[in-house]
């Protein structure tokens, strides 16, 4: 179980009157599942919360019960709400920079600020850090918090937390997957009477034609460097617009590079509408990309991180390709990877 002492947060949750939940920009299954699960739990202790994110919930997660509670930030609607809150809980994100649109209002608020996270960075900016880097997902921590507070895992909570765990473990492929991870998921399936097949279909088998087209474009741009230990792809703003793919989350396309034998790290570089370059980094085993992301103001996991960099695209590619050289060279020396073993 977690090394987090949940007592201080449990006390705050029972006494707070204006609670806001949020996560990082480009919310994923872990952050969204956690928000929805906690939002569903709070009425059981006589409390309610508002979920405010940078953007609307992605279509593939709208099947989750309670997903309609996720609100996309609008200054006129949400600035005063954030500034007048007495408890703000940020989940799956320890970086104030990744609050993006919400950051100014969160900083201006007198609220007690809590970070619930499983990433490696612990930021003293938060009033209270509830962080366990051994947890496979932030959803594991929300599960433990609810259990600590003697809460009931309802079917809606179980569904949201299941999505959190399966998406952030890559369906139990990643290194932080443990026996405890499987025990929690077994509990969630039983308590929620869940259908893993149905949830997989909702999350992974409802891709759009735009996403399929973008996948093909990205693969055609594939290049390798550092003795083919690093592979990367690119998507220009024009390519994304041409196939109406503006709303598509393409970050996981970087995983395709890891399917190539001998490649230890991969990246996708995408031009965003605001001119910045979104860099999605992925790696295998002991090759960690989090430090490279953090050095450019990004964040994430050891094997999966992201950065938002200034334009132009070619300059961002040159900088990251150069920066990853030492990481993949060190990783190549690992006997397990030389033998072709994967996490």
How would you characterize this protein structure?
There is one protein chain. With 343 residues, this protein is of the alpha/beta class. It has two domains: 7-204, inorganic pyrophosphatase (n-terminal core) (Alpha-Beta Complex); 209-338, Diaminopimelate Epimerase, Chain A, domain 1. Helix content is 39%, strand content 17%. The chain contains 14 helices and twelve strands. It has helices spanning 7-15, 29-41, 75-84, 103-108, 138-148, 155-168, 179-192, 196-204, 209-220, 237-242, 290-295, 313-323, 325-332, 335-338; strands spanning 19-22, 49-53, 70-72, 87-91, 112-117, 128-131, 223-225, 230-235, 265-271, 277-283, 299-300, 304-309. Strands 3-2-1-4-5-6 form a six-stranded parallel beta sheet, with helices on both faces. Strands 7-8-9-10-12-11 form a six-stranded mixed beta sheet, with helices on both faces. Helix 5 packs antiparallel against helix 6. 42% of the residues are buried.
Quick structural overview:
By secondary structure, the protein is α/β, with parallel strands linked by helices. The model is unreliable at 333-343 (pLDDT under 50).
